[in-house]
Amino acid sequence: MPDLTPDEIRTQLAAIGLTPLGQDDLDEITHRINAVNEAVLALEHPDLDAQEPTSIFWLSEEGAE
Amino acid sequence: MSAEELVLRPATELSALLTSGELSPVELTQAFVARAKRYDRLNAYITLDEEGALRQAQIAQAEIKRGAVRGPLHGLPVGVKDQFDVKGLRTTAGSVIVDYVADEDATVVARLREEGAVILGKLNLSEFALGGNVTHPHGIPHNPWDETRQAGQSSSGSGIAVAASLCAAALGGDTAGSIRGPAAWCGITGLRPTWGRVSRRGAWPMAWFMDTIGPMTKTVADAAMVFEAIAGHDPQDPHTSTRALTPFEPAEGLAGLRVGVVRESIDNGMATPDVAAGVEAALNVLRDLGATVLDETLPLFEHGGLISNGLADSEAAQIHRTFLRERPQDYDFASRRRLMAASLVPAAAYVKLSRFRMLMRRDVMAALDRVDVLVTPAQAEGAPKIATATGLTSKEAVMRQFFGLRAHRGPFNLSGVPAMALPIGFTPTDAEAGHVGLPMSLQVIGRPFAENAVFQLGHAYQQATNWHERRPALD
Q1: What is the CATH number of domain B258-469?
Q2: Class of domain B3-230
Q3: What's the structural domain count of chain A?
């Protein structure tokens, strides 16, 4: 997957009402999101699709949810 | 023993003296206040409530004198991370964006008060308990073992205050390592309880399904004492457990305890050679105490930082969305960049990370079926120098910083299990790096709600060693 460019990041941020403060902000935000996207894309596991993403572990055992 | 010497002692020792009437809560509070002022340069406190603390101490003294001892914390001066509300005191969450006087105590603070603890003040922290900020609006937290070095994130003030004896015990908060990290670098004991053991009401949130509050103390016995005061169901936090709490009663040695060493946390450069050697030495102590030490594996271990930070930052970005839009200039630049980037994490990535969280938990729980407790280094290295820049000038730099050595605590906050950091020695003196040895720490992980097994290992270790008795040489 190609990296997002700073201009693309600026546009995405603007779409949710966020504005980076200067070029240094924009560059680092771009590095950060590209790193997350690449790392998450690379994660693989044979049981991934069978695993439901439960949020709370214990309370169902106590009858509280 | 003078009050100046007493402040250096563990909270459990002070508790025994206070509740028996041999030590005055007022004198002890005065001694901690004086020391906190003397070492103000460490920036442990945001708010030191001298007047309020002395008033509470006088009440405690009168109650104890007439035989109305509330419990082991009665008259004990405690510091509270400024992430938690304390009635009548400022809450800043380590930021300049939030600043209000709380009109109600957080549940953990209310429970400390019910037990008679003296609330000394509010302790410094990373901005909004995120960790990773470079500028610090309430002063740069300095590690008392080497003041040029970081104290850890985000419960930095709590780590400093306990290590430097500026309070008898402290509360910290841990979403993705924020109790265990500072505890490790400051050479103290810090417990992240089982998620749901301790109420989060009145605490600034980061990621609701990982946020926890726990004790940061000089010893494991101290941690157990404070934990028992704050744990338990709270109707105002519906995600707190109703399970009964069994008081910790230390046993002799560790015979029969199976300890699993997570090899992925040490091997292949996942810890520095010094830390790896420190962990191996600690394992020998555990063997001498009768524990059976086994190799264990968590195949996803190295991804703990990515999964934990990816989820926690996405949750935090949502919490901060209004501030980010309206007051971006008031954030530390590193926090702002981090939260804005996390605002763009795709939903598909969040869902995938959520599924990996459960896969990680499945592995952790399977390992905890084979052994009683797991151990890893709590930090992969000694405390680094205080940062002046993020250094994130490339995608690769981000990956190195956030998805590698930060993995050590992530697997366990993802799994919701209890985990505790305890001191196991110091790195060798390094003249080139300019220090005489930095604290190293072992992370002990237990099954859900099995804090007592974690305490047992830690307490037995501390009975056999004296690392927890070391105090930084402050002038």
Answers
A1: 3.90.1300.10
A2: alpha beta
A3: 1
Chain A residues closer than 8 Å to B304 by CB:
none
In angstroms, the CA B21 to CA B64 distance is: 7
Domain-by-domain residue ranges, chain B? 3-230, 258-469
Which positions in chain A touch B324 (Cβ < 8 Å)?
18
CA distances, B152 to each of A12, B80, B174 (Å): 33, 16, 12
B461-467: long-range contacts at Cβ-Cβ below 8 A with a sequence spacing of 24 or more?
B461/B220, B461/B282, B461/B285, B461/B286, B461/B289, B461/B422, B461/B424, B462/B219, B462/B220, B462/B221, B462/B422, B464/B285, B464/B288, B464/B289, B465/B285, B465/B424, B467/B187, B467/B423, B467/B424, B467/B425, B467/B426
Q: From CA B137, how far away is CA B124, in angstroms rounded?
A: 10
**Catalytic annotation on B178?**
yes
The DSSP-derived string for B84-125 is: B--TTSEE-TTSSS--EE-SS--HHHHHHHHTT-EEEEEE--
Whole-prediction pTM: 0.97
Please give the pLDDT value at position B361: 96
| Mutation for testing the A interface, residue in B208, B314, B358, B361 having most A CBs under 10 Å | B358
Q: What interface predicted TM-score (ipTM) does this complex get?
A: 0.94
Any domain includes A1: no
Residue whose tokens read 């670098």: B185
CA end-to-end distance (rounded Å), chain A: 40
Kindly state the percentage of chain B with pLDDT values over 90: 92
Catalytic: B81? yes
Read off the pLDDT band of B180 (50, 70, 90): very high
Please give the residue that has the higher pLDDT: either B225 or B431. Answer: B225
Q: What integer pLDDT is reported at residue A65 of this predicted model?
A: 38
